[in-house]
Design a protein that fits this description.
Strand content: 25-35%
Helix content: 10-25%
Distance between the termini: 53 Å
Number of strands: 11
Shape: elongated
Largest sheet: 4 strands, antiparallel
Strand order of the largest sheet: 5-10-1-11
């Protein structure tokens, strides 16, 4: 029996480049970070012995609003999870021929500007001021409740996208980001929300990009 010749595999080094690009909101942005207070309440409920249910304390609207913000550990600026933009770009691949979502997961990444002060989430800085948004919501149980969240009516972000230049060009990345901004969005009430028919918040347009040479 003649042995089959071995096939030589040649693996090239990664060819990643960085695209600096700015996006500006075309609709208000609303965020809702899972607060440390809620984390502790869930932890206590799961680890403590069964006790008589205590009376619910009055809501502190201002505290709930601030707890829903992503704040950088260094500098204290407001941010948005860097992974939100990457997730939006991957979701936009549903409408792009030739780039399946499974391949897109390893094709580009967002470089963060800092990390959240409580849970270390990588953040991108928001150019914009948070305002206190209070509005009713319907919980999964059907009960109505009031939610206090940060809303950014005028916002922008300077992104740094690291991409595989062997798979995509800088123009491909910029166009995919633009598609994600128009059809997917980020944050609460975005067009392609997971648990609803979608809202009209969190969309953006690409304004400037510097293509690497």
């Amino acid at each position: 029996m003649v042995a089959k010749p071995k096939v030589k595999i040649e693996i090239t080094p990664p060819n990643f480049q960085i695209l600096p690009i700015r996006v500006e909101g075309t609709a208000p942005l609303m965020l809702h970070k899972f607060s440390e207070k809620m984390r502790k309440q869930i932890e206590e409920k799961q680890t403590s012995k069964d006790t008589t249910r205590t009376k619910r304390a009055p809501k502190d609207y201002a505290a709930e609003f601030n707890a829903a913000r992503y704040r950088a550990k260094s500098g204290g600026w407001d941010g948005i999870p860097a992974g939100a933009f990457r997730a939006a770009m991957i979701a936009a691949c549903r409408r792009v021929d030739g780039l399946p979502m499974t391949q897109a997961k390893g094709a580009f990444f967002l470089i963060s500007d800092g990390r959240d002060e409580t849970d270390g989430t990588p953040l991108v800085k928001i150019d914009g001021k948070a305002v206190h948004d209070t509005r009713p919501v319907r919980l999964e149980s059907g009960v109505a409740d009031m939610r206090n969240r940060p809303r950014y009516d005028s916002w922008a972000c300077n992104l740094k996208i690291q991409f595989d230049a062997d798979l995509l060009s800088a123009n491909d990345v910029a166009n995919l980001l633009a598609r994600a901004g128009a059809t997917v969005g980020v944050g609460e009430l975005r067009p392609q929300g997971p648990n609803s028919y979608g809202g009209d918040f969190g969309t953006w347009s690409v304004t400037t990009a510097r293509v690497p040479k």
